[in-house]
Every structure is written in structure tokens, then in C-alpha cells.
Amino acid sequence: MMTRVLAAIALLLIVAAVAAVLLPDQDLPAWLLSLLGRQPALPVCDVKIGHSTFELEIANTNDIRELGLMRRDSMPSDHGMIFVFARTEPLIFWMKNTRIPLDLIYLDDNANIISIQHMQPYVTSPTYDSPGPAKWAIELNDHAADDAGAKVGDHLELPKEAQSATE
Known about the structure:
Layout: H1 2-22, H2 30-35, E1 44-49, E2 52-59, H3 62-67, E3 79-93, E4 102-107, E5 113-119, E6 128-141, H4 144-148
Parallel strand pairs: 2-3
Antiparallel strand pairs: 1-2, 3-6, 4-5, 4-6
């Protein structure tokens, strides 16, 4: 029985390795890219936060939201990620396998900032909870929100491509 399980695992790893070599990154699932130490190519949008404009990768599927900014060693100062959710509800984030300190901005269903939190690398407990129902979350480099002058109550203009989740 154990031999069959090991054989099945070995076969799965071989298939994953072959797929990783033969298929372009956009055709691979996010979990496999993460396992390989690669990031999926995501759509991006520009969003003005405070007095600065950031190029945000759009995380609008479950796989991409779960992967987030994990395993990245750095991020350009004017970049980040916007997490788009299908429903407005209380959200919870953590920093599992996230190597860089980040700001977390929660937005309500009107795209108003309801919270700005500073998150530390690899922290899984405590979690970083939204103070109320949220539809979006934005991760930026640590203190980028403060440096841009963003504050609770600010309204953000979100482009169409960051308006809805596909899952």
C-alpha cells in the first residue's frame, strides 16, 4: 500500500515538473507556480492612494488571493497588490510565507479606506482583521500608505478591471 502511495506522489511530481517546463506560466495553477518559486503574470492597474499612484497587481481569483505576495523578496516602491472579493464581508489576512513587511489597506464597498495596518513578515497569529465589512484589500510596501498621505476615510477611484472578482 505504501509503495502505491509513493508511486502516485512520484508520478504527480513528474507530471507537475513536465507541465512546468512545457506550459507557459499563465496556464499553470497558482499553487504549482508557488511551489516552483515563480509568480503568475497578473493584470495590473494604476490606483492613486493619497498623493501617490501605485501599480497594483489584481488578485481576483481564489488561487491568486491565497498566493498573494508570498515568497517575494522585494517589491518596487510604487507597486502593490489589490485583492478583489466577490462579497463585502469581514476579511482576515496573515503573512504566511510573506518575506517583506507590508501595509494592508482595507476598503469598504464604496472604496473608502476603513483601516490601514502594518504587517510583519511570517506572522500567522495574530491575524490582521478588517474592522468591518470590506470588499477590497490593498497590500503595499511597509509605510508606503503613510508616506503617500493615505488615511482612514479617503475614497479611492478604482478602475473597472479592479471592480469584480471572478471567483
